[in-house]
TniQ family protein
Amino acid sequence: MSNIKNQLFIYEDESIEGYMFRSACSNYVTLDKIKEHVSLYFKKGVGDLKSALLLLNEENEFFYSRNSIYYIYHCGLLRYHISQKQKYSKFCPACLLEKSYHRIHWMIAPIIACRKHNLLLINYCASCFQLTTFTDVTINKCSKCKRELSLCKSKCINVMNRDSSMLMFDNIRYESEVWKGLVLTDFYLVLKRLRWFLNYHSKGEIGFTDLTYDEGKDNKFWFIGDENCFRWNILQAYELADDWPNNILKIYCPSDLEVLAGYIMGFGKVNLFFREFIKQIQQ
């Protein structure tokens, strides 16, 4: 694509959607043109997100391996292309005020708070209440009223009530060697795999399901369709993970839990966690 002259670098926590849109704006072409260019190479069999980033800037190879996209994409949490369900996005006004680009974690379901600024993420313009898309967030401007999104007000997190901000994950992470070192997305994968296991092997004792906010079992979309259902599932999984591993052993015997080792979703710490998980259960 000869008119891609301005080759932008990708930020370490930038989303692929936001990066493509920034590239389109910088080169005065439409986002569809960028997507079309990348998709053509995918259809020819190039076949992964790294190749798409290299098409926009050859020097992105170094940044790709350090970017959050590398982990999230290879765990199957997000597709590289823009699906309808990934169109809308949360954001932190304070982050946008510092630098205007779209962060990848703003599209991950369980992250509803900015750890850096201690603010709840919002998904609408505070002036006209229009839902914000990743393009709005990238350019820091509401598409309806043109207000700068960085000027929106957001609520501070009440550290005494972390359940409401989903930061309860931290309470588990450091209580046991098994959880130690897991980042938020790692921990959510652990809970997700637990819920899948419970859903298929509980014999009706507990009704867990991901279907209302995760497109079936293919793990290719990451969005919330039912906020209440999502929170309920997380809280139930959290309860089972609390007092590790005693609560879950009240329902399942060690031999039943061995099937968890067969759920391969991610790499590194998540798989390491499940090896340690099985060890604890079998002791």
